[in-house]
Design the sequence.
């Protein structure tokens, strides 16, 4: 249980830091020009925080902990992580594409690629850190 908590905190830290950096840059370059009319003036932090908490639980339970306990090759682990990110981000973006008027397909594509990339990167860093400390 202690390892899971430590792994969770490590993974959450990497996820928040990397995604915050991405959003800081891409918000002005992609999101505001494409969906600025839908964006709140000030983001609601509680739903965002709940998303981060839940996403990291999923990444840890479905990818990171099984990879460590089963000693998966890193390629398999990163593939699973990317697939997890792709599917989760696709759920949001494809739903928006299907249900919202004029939802830009470019946002869907960028988000799905980002979800896969972010998940793989966070998984790699988390596993390396978890293995290093213990």
Sequence:
């Amino acid at each position: 249980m202690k390892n899971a908590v430590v792994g969770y905190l490590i993974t959450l830290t990497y996820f928040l830091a990397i995604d915050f950096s991405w959003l800081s840059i891409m918000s002005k370059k992609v999101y505001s020009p494409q969906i600025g009319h839908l964006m709140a003036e000030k983001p609601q932090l509680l739903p965002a925080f709940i998303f981060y908490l839940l996403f990291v639980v999923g990444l840890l339970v479905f990818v990171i902990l099984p990879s460590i306990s089963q000693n998966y090759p890193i390629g398999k682990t990163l593939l699973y992580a990317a697939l997890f990110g792709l599917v989760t981000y696709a759920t949001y973006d494809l739903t928006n594409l299907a249900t919202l008027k004029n939802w830009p397909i470019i946002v869907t594509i960028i988000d799905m690629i980002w979800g896969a990339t972010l998940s793989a990167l966070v998984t790699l860093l988390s596993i390396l850190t978890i293995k290093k400390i213990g």
